[in-house]
Amino acid sequence: MREGSLRNFVQELAALVESVRTGQGFFSLKPDCHDDARQGAPSPIARLSRRIEACHPLDVLASLSHGTQVYWRSTDGSLEMAGLGQAERFGAACRDEQEEVFARMRALLSISPSTVKFYGGLRFDAQATSGSEWRSFGAAMFILPRVEIVEQAGSTYVAINLLSDRSIEEQLCEVDDVLRHAASPRAHSERLIVSKTRDDNPNERGWDEKVRDVLGVLEGANRARKIVLSRCSRFAVEGSLSAPAIVRELMRASPRSFGYIFSPEPGVAFFGASPERLFQRRGTRIVSEALAGTTIRGTNQEHDQVLALDLLASRKNRLEHQLVIDSIVGQLQTLCIAQPATEETTTIKTGSVQHLLASIQGVLRAEVSDWDVVRALHPTPAVAGTPTDAAIRFIRENEDHDRGWYSGPVGYIGRDESELAVALRCALVDSGSVRLYVGAGLVSGSDEKSEWNELEAKVSPYLRLLQESSRHA
Q: Measured in whole angstroms, how far is the alpha carbon of residue 270 from the centre of its chain?
């Protein structure tokens, strides 16, 4: 990060803190100060912001290693945010508590400024046994950052979030702590060593066996039509792995992806760049996406197009994709005022592979909440299979690793708009290791070798970046 850019961030954040302490920003803490608060209701959250010179959110995260960190970038770049610390945090330890997390957010957001957003995610399967590597994340966790660096509509802002029912001075001291760490940014001289030994769960032989088991289930009577199997590849590491640096490179290779980082404590981070949107809600308008079917990228633009046309013509891939479309349309139909509209299927290109994609749009009934949408759409056939119950049951009984937040919903929840992606193409970093998660959808006609090759294609950007990070550290 450029020294001048970080200095500017520190100066503007310090100015915000000073404005509150001197009373210049006190108007923002008065109950009725927000012109967008609902019906003049007291706002429990004061959000103070200042426009600053260009200061990239990922640069700030890469320079600091203090406390809780979150990052989010929408696929179209309309919103990019890095968060430091936590003004509020709602978490769930089990499936039964997930709905309460959404209810508490909804109640707080209903009387807060429209710019307030909670960032976080949920486990793929909250009823499955949780592995120790996921202990910091829980079944769900959503955070309102204490400090935010936001890029939106061509401008950059620094903001702090303060809760009116807590000591303002104690909260400002938390911001002071961020300032102290920003004054002494993290050095990147520590050598990073990534082990060349890779522990795949399952390994290729085990994968072949599990694929054959799936095909046996698919060919059985009325049990399942699609099952998604996943793989976890673990590498031992020595030194500090920079999640912001990896995500930056992933986003350069796949600019139409959702970028995300969730680090509940130093040394632990879940991050990735996903091509798949679960849903975006603006008011009552909702957009979801059916993403399934995979082929590799071409060696040049012409070859890329040939492979895309082959993907569109593939009976196996179109079947897999149609199952996802049918499921999303069927679920949204129960929440919308009319039949959702499905756009024509096309292809989307990521760094190493391309997929079939179709957008599905509708208008929600007024009483439908974000939790209602999550509960209806997650998990889609793209990450679990169909029918959902049969696919989830097979995954619980046959996958030997914990998916954790992999293939679960991640993103932000707001009053007037919310957006959640499906956590794909992701990694989990904890003490001494990095785990890479990928999966493949299996339908009748799938074969072991091609599906394993698909996993390798999906994980290849991470393998390259890990090697480069280790070599250049």
A: 9
Please say if 226 is a catalytic residue.
yes
Residues in the chain, overall count: 473
Cα–Cα distance for residue pair 29/31, rounded to 1 Å: 6
CATH number listed for the domain at residues 193-472: 3.60.120.10
At 412, list the tokens.
Answer: 């932000």
Q: How many CB atoms lie within 10 A of CB 185?
A: 17
Three-point CA angle 382, 394, 407, nearest 5°: 35
> Residue 86 and residue 80: Cα distance in Å, rounded?
18
Residue type at position 93? A
Question: Mean of the pLDDT values across residues 215-226?
Answer: 81
The pLDDT tens digits of the residues spanning 262-293 come to 999 988 999 999 999 999 999 999 999 999 99
Pick the CATH number of 3-183 from 3.40.50.300, 1.10.150.320, 3.30.420.40, 3.60.120.10: 3.60.120.10
276 noted as active-site residue: yes
Report how far apart, in Å, the C-alpha atoms of 400 and of each of 68, 123, 396, 420 are. 30, 16, 8, 27
CA-CA-CA-CA torsion sign (15, 17, 23, 29): positive
200-225 burial, b at 16+ Cβ within 10 Å, e below that, comes to bebeeeebbebbebbbebbeeeeebb
Angle, to 10 degrees, between the axis of helix 370-377 and the axis of helix 315-333? 150
Choosing from 117, 210, 226, 458, the catalytic residue is: 226
pTM of the full structure? 0.94
- The answer to whether 74 and 141 have CB atoms below 8 angstroms apart is no
The catalytic position among 276, 289, 419, 451 is 276
